[in-house]
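Journal club prep, shared notes

We agreed each person brings one worked example of a sequence with its structure written out as tokens. Mine is TLC domain-containing protein. I'm keeping it raw so we can talk through how to read the token line rather than staring at a rendered picture. Sequence first:
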Amino acid sequence: MAEAPARKSVRKSVHLVNNALAADCLGENWNARTTPLPAVLKQWHGFFTGDPVKDHDIANVVFISVILALDVSWSVANKYATDALASLLFTAFFYVSLIYFIADALWIAVVPKSCKTPGVVIGHHVVVIFYMSIPFFYPEYGWCMAACLSVETCTVLLIVKRLYPHRMLEAAFYTAWVVIRLIYYPYLCWAFFQIWVEVGPWHLVIFAPIFQVLLTCLSYFWTYTLVVNMLRRRKKP
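Then the structure, token by token:
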């Protein structure tokens, strides 16, 4: 019976520490009794920087940079290196990319304040995850995945220019956006359609042109949004 007060004291101490940490992260208005867990997550102000958007941006830059490095490494190895090295790099490229899209979708679902359009981004990630089933079952189409994920260059440049505004970064971002999203992505729709025609109508590759069209349409939708926002900013006095 003597241990009960001790356990109670420990639980109380842990509770106080947790409340202190939560109050530090969520602000002084946070109330442990009246704020349930989902509401706590919605109020999250960011763990690393105090800003959920900036936290998400930094994590994205780090992980997407790794993905792009693996993308380039595998693409080069696939042409010039041994099959064993190319296979190893593709495995790393595939699973790091898969983990990123799953983790990022979960992050946004848990902390929707981390981006402006959480529903759209989560939907995008779900499409990409299903899209990745093609190179998973048919590694010979790994180049399709590498080609598609080159678009993440735009994501990195977008975030970096937001964190560190500079004209050179602006120019690099818009150039990459036009070249990859508005020119290269529509071309991939046609290229993947040709592959599907070659392999037959009942092949899993049928989803490649379908998903690519969806992602290309999303790119053009984002372009429209980007242009509208730019015009609105110019109209402001």
